[in-house]
Amino acid sequence: MRKFSTISFTVFLFFLIGFSSLTKSEDDNKIDTSTMTIDFYGAEYIENFDGIVVVGHNGLVGTLKINGETGTLEPLENTPDVDFTAIGKIDDSSAFLGSATGNLYKLSDGAVELIGEVSEFGEPVLDIAHKDGVTWVVGARGLISKSTDGKTFETIEITDALMPKTKFPGGQAVDWYLGVQNLNFDSLKFTGSVNGQPAVADKDYIVYPDEGFIQFQTEFDTNPAPTVTTKFDPGPPFRRGDVSWNKVLLGNGVVTIAGEFGFILQSSDGGNSWTRRDSSVIPKEPEPAYWISGVQKGNIVWLAGAAGVNASSQDGGKSWIYNKRPGREGIFGVQLANDNTPIITGAVGLVGVLESGAWKLADRTQLKILSWLKNPVMMPDGSIVVLGGRATAITIKDGNYTRVTVGLKD
């Protein structure tokens, strides 16, 4: 069994779960919506439900239908009394639901049934993706699970992920950090020269595999620049596998996962091997991104996360450009409009679009947004509905924001 940390898996998840939204009466297992606040933790537009299927805490599974400035929520009855943390659309009439305790459920035919446990440690399911008959589930403490039949799920453990050959940006005698730890020392290939002669291990440089840095003992030549490639086990030093994977994306036969420590890993063989993207070597301890959300449309991929960090790729995730931050608030959701304009949502009511390379944020005071926003959902008419805590719903269309008042179906 791999080692794992006792540190909290995802700070923002604890923050969201702190607001219990719905309770159930003991006698009939129905949701009591009379006095509770409704939080939308996950959402997907599913055609045969004729609306947005939303999930949340205390068994919330329901359909939200929006008509102008009014939204009507119809909760499904007799759902399991669990905190649902993720939803992934399967087809026009069904979806997988993930729970805060590592269980996976299936929504179909108006009912929610338990599929099974996908987390070894009972940790939260944080994202679900389904494409071409294959389902991927990711979550806290290294949770990665895969199914080809929607019934049985196999655990995927990432060992010996590849860091492609990467150039050093300088040659000064400092500690050079690779941005990955738990290196496979036998696979590490370092090239470099000192005064025109090949560098000598343990004399000119020292490798610290667990901590993930190479210490230059002297000045290195920079023409050609030193390079390094290695395999590694994702996770912090000495804790292999202990990574919160917060997002999984499927496209063009490639699986992309992202989460803690700035990791962006891709597999083109169904999870048998993995390659790290966005590799770099820097002369200081790295301050990696913490990816929380992402979206993919063809070769266009966006990732966003804590402290407003966001990055985009135009080649399916092989290379990345870091974009201007909208602020310091965490970005909990990102979506692409029909013209591929990115829309972001996040902490303390953050919502905005990218225009001419700068983020244009909505006026939270005017929209009376008092909670976090997480779920930007693409609608059939091209509009985007943003959902979050305290039953918050905002429609974005043609650059205009409309606050939607959500009520329960009579």
Please give a structural write-up.
The chain is an all-beta fold. Helices cover 3% and strands 47% of the residues. It has 2 domains: 11-158 and 242-280 and 287-295 and 365-408, Methylamine Dehydrogenase, Chain H (7 Propeller), CATH 2.130.10; 161-232, no CATH class. The chain has 2 helices and 38 strands. A hairpin with a 4-residue loop joins β24 and β25. The radius of gyration is 23 Å and the shape is globular.
Low-confidence runs: 1-12, 17-36
* Alpha plus pi helix count: 2
Strand line-up across the major sheet: 3-4-5-6-38-37-36-35
Largest sheet: 8 strands, mixed
**Global outline:** globular
Strand content: over 45%
Task: Label the CATH architecture of the largest domain.
Answer: 7 Propeller
Structural class: mainly beta
Distance between the termini: 51 Å
Multimeric status of the protein: single chain
The CATH class of the largest domain: Mainly Beta
